[in-house]
Every structure is written in C-alpha cells, then in structure tokens.
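[Q] Does anyone have a clean structure-token version of this?
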Amino acid sequence: MKKKGVLNAQLAGYIAGLAHKECFMITDAGMPIPKGVPVVDLAVCGGVPTFRQVMDAVLGEVAVEHYTVAKEIGEHNPVIWSYIQEKLPGVSHEIIDHVDLKEMSQQIKFAVRTGEFTPYPNVILQAAVVY
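[A] Here you go.
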C-alpha cells in the first residue's frame, strides 16, 4: 500500500502518465468539463476537498512549467489567486478570459474536480520535465 502522496488510485495513475508539455486542470465543483475529457471527481460536498488541499497534493508529485488561469480570479477570488502565485513562484503563466479557459480545457489530458465553492479557482497546469 502506498504510504504518502496522492492515494486516490485514479488520480495517481493520471499523474504517473503525464509527459512533458501535457496539460491537466484542477477545478472547482462547478466548472464544466468538456465531453471526452476524463475527470477525477474528488468532490464530496461543498468545500470538501478544497482547491488548496488538492493543489498541494498534486504539486507534491508534479513538476509544472506553465499554468493558465482566468483573469476573473484576480477580482473575484484574490485569496486563491495569491495562493496559486505563491505555490508556483517563477513559473510562467498566462491570464485569459474565463470563456477562453473553458475553450482551452478541451485540450487537457484530464481534469481534477474539487469541492471548492468559491469563484474561479480553476487552473490549467502544464507538466514540466524533471531532469
């Protein structure tokens, strides 16, 4: 039995299968995921698990070279926006309209749905190479 890190078998498998430059998304409970994109649905109820809890667990296992967020997060959820910036210091990023983020999500390898009930805590992460 695995002792630490991501214990959810589905999520651990998707993370292990990531290759350099592939993208995935961590979302709130309400983000529409495009048909055909696999979803690791971790949401139990409103606020469980939080976006931060899931992001912390994932970042413990994934190297990230780039991320994309919706510009609306800055105004509507500055606490989560600050958290993302603190967790990914020096990592290149792009800020786009929420509508464009939804469009971009059609190209992701998988999505991780949290129980987060705050506005715009959605991020597309691009896997880095670790050597």
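[Q] Thanks! Anything notable?
[A] Strands lie at 23-27, 39-41, 64-70, 92-96, 111-113, 123-127.
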